[in-house]
Specification:
Elements (H helix, E strand, L loop, with lengths): L17 H13 L14 E2 L1 H13 L3 H13 L10 E3 L6 E3 L2 E2 H5 L1 H12 L2 H19 L11 E2 L11 H20 L5 H16 L11 H9 L5 H15 E2 L3 E3 L6 E3 H13 L3 H10 L13 E3 L4 E2 L6 H14 L3 H8 L13
Antiparallel strand pairs: 1-2, 2-3, 4-5, 6-7, 7-8, 8-9, 9-10
């Protein structure tokens, strides 16, 4: 894992200087295990979604060998049914700490793999990872319900959860688009995936009643935009409806109402969503606000309780740094990052025949 860094697109006035960017990338890379696993931080657990997000940030920074090692870890430790467990102790695949299998955790490998391919142009890598992506998508689509939404997890006993999460389904939407892009590139059409994608997009766009009510969480507010389902006037209306509830000017984005707690990951993701809908100036503002979460290590504290003037929890997570680096990469015009989060050229699926 020796590829040189490339951080010239990870500089943004008021957000990251060149020196700060290099320090953040180095601190993120230092959390990666020698087998490629990227836990939240050393000694804490790994989950497949955040592991992938951190790998994407490493790719955006030019550390392609490290990113490839992260995807190799996923390929080597995929369950026989195409899934991964929800959590592994410090990235040790022999020690899963949560044996449930979450649908968006499993699907997200497709986003990372397509991002890595777009970054490197490495067809050999894509060929090698294709069976992993294919199995993951097939597992996730077994959890699609008749209304198009995706059940949020399969419990340890194998029984699907009785409910779908809007955030998770919106994330799966992005993953299916990336998986279909990989399939098209390989000239292996997947019409069933196209239909599933169209049904899923329709459910997210038109049927909020099909999802568990998690409207207190900011992720449910912005993820239909971040996941590529909403754009244009629909995205603008959704953003306006939640802005005053979730955004704390100068500090960041609340994780959950009514808690006086802003979090770096949600703030950076909102910035990505703002960029994706053409609101780059506001995206930069949000990223500037969360400079107060930056630690001397170059990583970022997970969150801040503003009523108590206290960092909480006292942890610096790889996924918080990863989300911020990806937002900066998108604003800086990194082609792979803009492709997977902008989605202009990703497949859109087949619209369902009925409502």
């Amino acid at each position: 894992m020796t590829s040189p860094g490339r951080t010239e697109r990870l500089v943004l006035p008021g957000v990251l200087t060149a020196q700060e960017s290099a320090l953040t990338v180095a601190a993120l890379a230092a959390q990666q295990r020698t087998d490629g696993a990227i836990p939240w931080f050393r000694g804490h657990h790994l989950d497949p979604w955040d592991h992938t997000e951190a790998a994407m940030a490493l790719d955006a920074a030019g550390h392609h060998d490290r990113a490839e090692a992260a995807y190799r870890w996923l390929a080597e430790h995929q369950n026989g049914d195409g899934s991964w467990y929800a959590a592994y102790a410090d990235g040790d695949a022999s020690r899963p700490t949560d044996r449930a299998r979450e649908s968006n955790f499993t699907a997200y490998v497709a986003v990372g793999v397509w991002h890595h391919y777009l970054t490197t142009g490495d067809d050999t890598f894509l060929d090698r990872m294709w069976p992993t992506v294919y199995a993951a998508v097939e597992h996730v689509l077994q959890l699609q319900r008749p209304g198009g939404e995706i059940a949020w997890r399969r419990d340890e006993d194998g029984i699907p959860a009785d409910g779908a999460l809007l955030t998770g389904s919106a994330s799966v939407h992005q993953a299916l688009r990336c998986a279909l892009a990989a399939a098209e590139h390989r000239e292996e059409p997947q019409p069933d995936w196209e239909l599933a994608l169209g049904q899923l997009a329709h459910a997210v766009r038109r049927h909020p009643e099909r999802f568990l009510d998690k409207s207190r969480y900011s992720m449910d507010w912005y993820y239909p935009i971040l996941g590529g389902v909403l754009r244009g006037q629909e995205a603008g209306a959704r953003l306006a409806a939640g802005w005053e509830k979730f955004v704390v000017p100068g500090l960041g984005v609340r994780c959950v109402l009514p808690n006086p707690w802003v979090t770096g990951g949600e703030s950076a993701e909102l910035a990505l969503a703002l960029w994706a809908m053409g609101e780059s100036d506001r995206a930069v503002d949000v990223l500037r606000w969360i400079r107060h979460l930056r630690a001397e290590s170059g990583l970022y504290w997970t969150g801040y309780v503003f009523e108590d003037d206290a960092v909480w929890p006292e942890e610096q997570t790889t996924w918080t740094a990863g989300a911020l680096l990806l937002a900066v990469a998108a604003l800086g015009g990194d082609e792979a990052t803009t492709a997977v989060f902008g989605g202009d050229h990703l497949p859109t699926g087949l619209a369902p025949d009925c409502c």
